[in-house]
Please model this.
Amino acid sequence: MRLGRILNFVLLVIFVFLIPIFFRSSNYYLIVLILCGINIILTSSLRLIASVGQMSMGTMAFAGIGAYTSAILMMKLGFPIWAAFPLAGFIAMVVAAVIAFPFVRVTGIYFAMLTLFFGEVVRLVISEWSSMTGGTTGLFGIPSIGTLSFFGIHIDFAHLLPYCYFVLIVMVLTLLILYRIDRSHLGTTLAAIERDENVSASVGINVIKFKVITFCIGCFFAGIAGSLYAHYLRVLNAETFGLFPSIYVLIYMVAGGRKKFSGPIVGALVLTVIPEMFRILKQYQPLIFVAVLFLVLFFMRGGLVDLPEKIRSRVRTVNEGRASNA
Amino acid sequence: MWGGLWQGIFNGLASGWIYVLVALGLTLIFSIMRILLFAHGEIYMLGAYVVYYVCVKGGIHFFWALMISALTLGLLGIILEKYMFRRIRGEMEPAVLAAIGLTLLFQTLAVIAFGTYLKYIPSIFPGVLKLGGVRLSWDRLLVVLIGLVLTLALLLVIHKTKVGKAMLAISHDPEAAALQGINVNRISSLSMGIGCALAAIAGGLMGSLLQLAPYMGTFAITKGIAVIILGGIGSILGAVLGGLILGLVDSLVALFTSGTIAAIVGFCVIILILLIRPKGLFGHD
Amino acid sequence: MLETKGLTKHFGGLSAINNLDLNVNAGEIVGLIGPNGAGKTTLFNLVTGFLHPTSGRILFDGKDIVGQKPHAIARLGMVRTFQLVRILHDFTVLRNMFAASHLYPQIGFWEAILNTSRYRQKEEQINSNIIKILHFVGLSDLRDTVAGNLPHGHQKMLGIALALAAHPKLLLLDEPLGGMNPVEVDTALKLVAEIRKQGTAILLIEHNMRAVMSICDRVVVLNFGTEIARGLPEEVKQNKEVIEAYLGAGKRAAKSERHKSPLRQS
Model:
């Protein structure tokens, strides 16, 4: 049975890796793929944090920390990419660890408010610290992650197709780790904490420790996603990592559904692709998010990932009705 | 230097009263409906724009424009309560998400409908009262007056009227209140209406003092949440003191450092309060 | 095993527990009784770290545990159940048990993620432990039922099973028989006796007097946070003060109904 799972997984990965080749002639689709990959990482990392019952409104703040870290390390301190990239995640994680200890003792809506205000502090610090971050004008000329040469093959990641593969590889690795956390005993522990902290404590679960760890891991991946974004766009600006972008990630997660592991993936995909597909004015884009959000809140609490099931049960009741009338 | 300080204090008090009005609405809605209306800032913004269009484009006097705005947004609040929030009452997560959705909706519509260029409402009482080197603009004095009057009115309603007492009952224990025969639905609608009306007036006043922009709501909700954290959720006195303190701090700190650093300091203080004493000064939830 | 010395807890002006000296020795079943509001659950909360005492000492196996968190105290071997049954309602019985099997064996972060063979071994171990415990409490057949769908009596048994998964040396049962019919009570009492036979000491809060009489080695009676009697069940039953306390409480309960938080009842 395990072999079947591994086989499914391998097929899925192969499918995922064939898509960029399919679109290789179109820069536009490659960009959409890159953004999908980044958003999937962000949304799935938020799901991890939410799985212990914490609503973080600061996802993009940590993405911003990661983005600026890897950009600054490469530009100002000459770090090579293979150091700057993981450091982006680690610095984001360290910052997360520092605030996690006091923050996780606080529950529910207060935790959300804390992350909201912290996110604002991060955004303001980025815009104020112009010597490092370019302040409100932004950071330009971020280097690409470089080139790779082996066996006579030369890959330049400044081009979209190779970079798209880089993003997808990172995404697959991220999802693997998050999936393992979810499926393992650790995931059951986290789910128990979300449902009843008192019972969990009474059987020996150190609730604070686990909340801190999940928050840190989630923010690590947010930082990684930020770094991926920085080296794709090559330009950074504090506004990209403000409150509303964090809210968008939250909406992706809720829209997709946060109970199932695939929920955030579906949410991120749908809400990244649909605005692009309908090519409407940038001004109107948030309306799509609002529409999907309200649709899910009032008709499909479990998220879009439940849609196939809902359709199936609707079809079933219709068929039953038809059968009993026949 | 001293003149600058007193000027800062006066200006801070004026903007403080606007924060108070926003926080009052927010805390009222939270106490009765148990949801943090994240979209409250957008109501404030819409209130400002209604005043703008009615007063500037429609030629109606500012006071009447304020009242029309209050009524309109109050009505909007009642409709939102009846058709949206009543369905998800009691569940925190969907309510917050719905409020977030509304925020996004209103702000996007505002950008589309009103454009991103700043708009201005001309001064209703131009001129200043010069008092010992401090320029007390009539506009700002008016804001302070309106703020005081509305706060007192709210206090009267809550403590002296039957409706107000019902509100107090619901804020302490909604189930017990319902058992006592209080129509929780009607009171919730009313609270939402009052809360939104207060936000609308606050928006109109701020619009006349400074300017209007579609994103002014975000500013308002951040200040509103900060005030109720400082003053304590559910406390009118807390909202008043919190709003005034915050207004003063904002104004005075900005005298000495840049606006951004003042904002950073402000947020860090709020974070500390949330960590150390989440109840704030007078909170009791 | 468990010892409290001069344990006191004030809530504002109210004294919930007053200068209490209590002890439970290995292998004992001690009953804690008293009218509603006497402070019994408060005592449980204090002793397991859910509440901080105002003053006094709490010793477990000779070590002072005041100030320790509930999960650390569970790790030391003292585990409690909750009066209003607390289980994970949307999990199956089996998954509930998995969640509770946190301490033995301990699973490290990296081995869980990398799905190492040692991790899988540990999962096997947990699995067999769970099967044993479920069989012990009689819930084996219901292992795939969603916990929230179980009848009340079974939910209480699950609560006990969860506590057992933490391998307690001392088990604190908070009204385990509440809401059970006589058949369930019988089964539960047999279970409690078995638990003691397997080497776990038990401190039991109960209102069901017959049960207390039949199973407890000795009994401590609380009223208004103070101990008013202690000794063998038979002696305590005849104690005049104890009878007065219960009658008085009955009168008070008839007069008013106070709303209390779940952590503070009895």
User: Anything to note?
Assistant: DSSP finds ten helices and ten strands in chain C.
